[in-house]
Each structure stands twice: as structure tokens, then as C-alpha cells.
Amino acid sequence: MGGPSVEERQASIASEPKGNFFYGRRYYVEKTRFWGYLRKPGQSAKNAKLVIINESSKRTPDRLPENGPAGRRYGFDQNYEYRLYGHYTGEQVYEVNSNQFLPEFKLTRYEVVNKNPGWLFSPNDHYNPQSITLIPR
């Protein structure tokens, strides 16, 4: 997936802006409905949680048809990094296609931070759009 060295990533996280928001990394896997991983500012991705987004206040950036043209379909933003505003609802939501109960996050606003941030958990990360390959280690 490319990206910075481990040391560069650690320095970047240590110096990133803090605030009342979360950093989110979009993780698209075909036929799943989870959104991606969220972490608090200053925390390593190893502390990130895979979440389901509650869109009752704000839709996710990729809320597009699944069969649209390339670059304009659901999941187009795989691996984009966002600043997400909102809160965890305290609910656990069952994601049937991955057979997981995941925390629900109610989104109120988002901003794109980086469209090509590189690896998420390790420089050895491997992305496969048809199966879950990115998990915190």
C-alpha cells in the first residue's frame, strides 16, 4: 500500500491536530457495510475501531450507486483519510457479510485529510477488495 516509514507515521500522528473529532480511514470491502477504522487524534491506528456509520444526520462521502462509473461509485474512496465529527452511539450493529458486531458511529460532518495516506497498520499491509485483510496488529 506504500506510504511513509514507521517513524515518519509515528511523528505525523504525534504532531497532528487534536480536537473533538476522530481520524477515519475508509476501508472498502465488497458486499460489506462497515465504513472503516476510526481513531482518536494522537492515537496509533492499532487503537482504531472498525465501525458502522449511522447516516441519519450526515451521509458518508461515498454514498453513491454500487454500479456507477469508475471513481463515482460506492467505495471510490478506499483508503482516504478523513476527519470525522460525531459520536459513538453506544450501539453494536451486526454486519451480516463479515459476521461481526461493530460499534455504531453517528456522523455529523467530515473533511478529507489525505487521499493517499499509504498503509494503515503496518508497511506490510495488503489490500484485497474481496476479503478483510486489514486488521489492527
From TrEMBL:
<protein>
    <submittedName>
        <fullName>Uncharacterized protein</fullName>
    </submittedName>
</protein>
